[in-house]
Automatic annotation (TrEMBL):
Lineage: Bacteria, Bacillati, Bacillota, Clostridia, Eubacteriales
Protein name in UniProt: biotin--[biotin carboxyl-carrier protein] ligase
GO biological process, one term: protein lipoylation
The enzyme's E.C. designation: 6.3.4.15
GO molecular function: ATP binding; biotin--[biotin carboxyl-carrier protein] ligase activity; transferase activity
InterPro entries in the cross-refs: aa-tRNA-synth_II/BPL/LPL, Biotin_CoA_COase_ligase, BPL_C, BPL_LPL_catalytic, Transcriptional_repressor_C
Keyword Ligase annotated: yes
Keyword Ligase part of the UniProt annotation: yes
Domain BPL/LPL catalytic: 18-207
Length: 277
């Protein structure tokens, strides 16, 4: 097994069910939980627990992921003791065509939580990344799954790089951590609890109309893509344009020479013209 010890701070904070419960302010999010030292993927573990009867609000966390999942089949580096690797299970209260908006809600929750607990000001990179100084500090993966009874559920996986002091060479140019950006004393239990609390608040507003109409203005204010020239990589080909912001359904509006195009998530990737952002 690979030794991750050089990447762990000397005074590692305690991340456990007991510590999380000390900070938790939610009504339902994370009130039931499964903490593991190591797992292939918290999304996969949540999927397995769903088949055994787990339900709305379950939180799965791990000290380390051996096969962390990102969007579009990408992996997600999740070394031991370095970050928050967690998945929140939701009952399918939202309509199927609204599920992708939950990724944006979680992005807002992570961004707000980091702002509240550190002196850092991260931005949101549509649709699922949180960035600091042009590098990714958090990724989010939302999946729609079926329970053993055939009922829809939603998994929202969150990976926050907290204490990482280094990254694999293939990630070093586009990944960072709260530690590397100057927040050396982050308590992972407190941050995870704040993320869940903020998500619960945003989710309540979202469920009024099952759209982002009450949240669009706040999202736009933190959107790093806004008014930037971007390249949209879609299954049918790539194109360039200027990102204008999002609409009430969470789609990214991109002005192109042919007109304004509405970009939804899924298999689409958006990059800056000169790099990741």
């Amino acid at each position: 097994m690979k030794d991750d010890s050089r990447n762990i701070p000397k005074t590692e904070d305690v991340f456990s069910r007991e510590e999380l419960e000390r900070y938790l302010k939610t009504v339902w999010a994370g009130r039931t939980s499964c903490f593991l030292e190591e797992v292939d993927s918290t999304n996969e573990e949540a999927r397995r627990l769903l088949q055994k009867g787990a339900d709305h609000g379950l939180l799965v966390t791990a000290g380390k992921q051996t096969a962390g999942k990102g969007r579009r089949g990408n992996g997600f580096s999740s070394p031991a003791g370095c970050g928050i690797w967690m998945t929140l299970l939701l009952g399918r209260e939202a309509e199927t065509d609204r599920v992708s908006m939950l990724t944006l809600l979680m992005g807002m929750a992570v961004q707000k939580a980091i702002c509240n607990l550190t002196d850092l000001t991260p931005r949101i990179k549509w649709p699922n990344d949180i960035v600091l100084n042009g590098k990714k500090v958090c990724g989010i993966l939302t999946e729609l799954v079926l329970s053993a009874e055939g009922k829809d559920h939603i998994l929202i996986g969150v990976g926050v790089n907290v204490h990482n002091r280094k990254f694999p060479p293939e990630l070093a140019d586009r990944a960072t951590s709260l530690f590397l950006e100057g927040a050396a004393d982050v308590n992972r239990s407190a941050l995870a609890a704040e993320i869940l609390y903020q998500f619960e608040l945003y989710y309540k507003k979202f469920m009024v109309r099952q759209d982002l109409s009450e949240l669009t203005e706040e999202y736009q204010a933190n959107l790093i893509n806004k008014n930037q020239e971007v390249i949209v990589h879609a299954p049918k080909g790539s194109y360039r344009g200027t990102a204008l912001g999002i609409d009430d359904r969470g789609a990214l509006l991109v002005r192109t020479p042919e007109g304004i195009r509405s970009v939804t998530g899924g298999e689409v990737s958006v990059r800056g013209v000169y790099g990741y952002v």
